[in-house]
Amino acid sequence: MPAPETHPTGPGRVLVFDVGGMTCASCAARVERTLQRQPGVAGAGVNFATGRATVELDGSAPAPEGDLIAAVARAGYRLDPLPAGSPGVASEHAAEEAAWLRRLVVAWPLAAATLVLSLAWPHATWARFTTAALAIPVVFWAGWPFVRSAVVRARARTANMDTLIALGTVSAFAFSTFELLTRAGGIHGHGAGAFGDHLHYDMAALIVAFLLLGRFIEARVKGSASGALRALLELGAKEACLVEPGARPFERMVPVESVRVGDLLRVRPGEKVPVDGVVVAGGSAVDESMLTGESVPVDKAPGDPVVGATVNQQGVLTIEARAVGADTALSGIVLLVEQS
């Protein structure tokens, strides 16, 4: 199991997880309450849109990651640690969107056919059996995620929106099948069923079809949110010019991940400031529009702070790194978005 992504914060630390099995905002609230009740957890937040859970541990008695995963599993959901250093955006939304789309393209033609048959030939035996056959793949294949989720929630002694969906569609299908098989006309060619000869295969199929459309749109929106976070993270610099101290200082390019607090960095005109820091030598104007939205560059002199991912416009700056990695302002913005 990969180590979860950690963000040191004060006396404790922050863990970021992927959450599986959430289908609505109430699911996110349930997972959040479950995490907050665990010993050693100072606070927790779950973002349904990004599928992320952020857990702040108590520095005095932090909760083991395994206990958090087990607690969420007992509630009927899945908690997956993010590998260390992975970006805080969901990577599975494209596959999720494709999966809903496959079920959608199967459900809608069959659901439309059941509606046409139910309206045009409501009492024809051949049409009634045909609607039953058409509804089977819609309810039990296209709608299987709803049924499976309802079963998982039932085992955990909880319920969510999928529980209502599964109860409604499966009950409509079961009732219609009972009516179809007990109706004398269905077997012997005459008579009505025990409850008035009414079939609801079209309702069950259409409910599943509309809900699949909603889940597909939801997956696209979540994918867009993840793409926005990914684009935000891409604003950061990939390399930094490290100034090696000594009698004869020299410069070398290093990955930004290797920069440590206290390192001296050289930023030339046109380059991005690699990390948050303070100017120790030089002067320039820095474009901070990515952070503040202000299009006018801000003059920087020794002693002034600079923020990672902003762009040096004119002179050469030498800065001392004050915040790196997950402690930078850019990473903090992404973390706040995931928790919101």
List the helices and strands and how they pair.
Elements: E1 5-9, E2 12-20, H1 25-36, E3 41-47, E4 52-57, H2 65-74, E5 78-81, H3 93-120, H4 125-142, H5 144-155, H6 161-182, H7 184-187, H8 201-233, E6 239-244, E7 250-255, E8 264-267, E9 276-282, E10 284-287, H9 289-292, E11 298-300, E12 305-306, E13 311-312, E14 317-323, H10 329-339
What does this structure look like?
By secondary structure, this protein is of the alpha+beta class. Helix content is 45%, strand content 21%. The chain contains ten helices and 14 strands. It has helices at 25-36, 65-74, 93-120, 125-142, 144-155, 161-182, 184-187, 201-233, 289-292, 329-339, and strands at residues 5-9, 12-20, 41-47, 52-57, 78-81, 239-244, 250-255, 264-267, 276-282, 284-287, 298-300, 305-306, 311-312, 317-323. It has a six-stranded antiparallel sheet, with no helix packed on it. Strands 1, 2, 3, 4 and 5 form a five-stranded antiparallel sheet that branches. Strands 11-10-13 form a three-stranded antiparallel sheet, with no helix packed on it. Strand 1 and strand 2 (12-20) form a beta hairpin. The chain is elongated and about 95 Å long. The protein starts with a strand and ends with a helix. Residues 5-11, 84-90 and 184-194 have low confidence and may be disordered.
Query: Which of globular, elongated, flat, extended, rod-shaped describes the shape?
Result: elongated
- Unreliable segments of 5+ consecutive residues: 5-11, 84-90, 184-194
What structural class do you assign from the helix and strand content? alpha+beta
Number of helices: 10
Number of strands: 14
Summarize model confidence as the mean pLDDT.
82
Q: H/E element string?
A: EEHEEHEHHHHHHEEEEEHEEEEH
Measured distance between first and last alpha carbons: 27 Å
Oligomer: single chain
**Helical coverage, percent range:** 40-55%
The main pleated sheet reads as:
6 strands, antiparallel
Rg computed from alpha carbons, rounded to a whole number of angstroms: 29 Å
Main β-sheet, spatial strand arrangement: 7-6-8-14-9-12
- Proportion of beta-strand residues: 15-25%
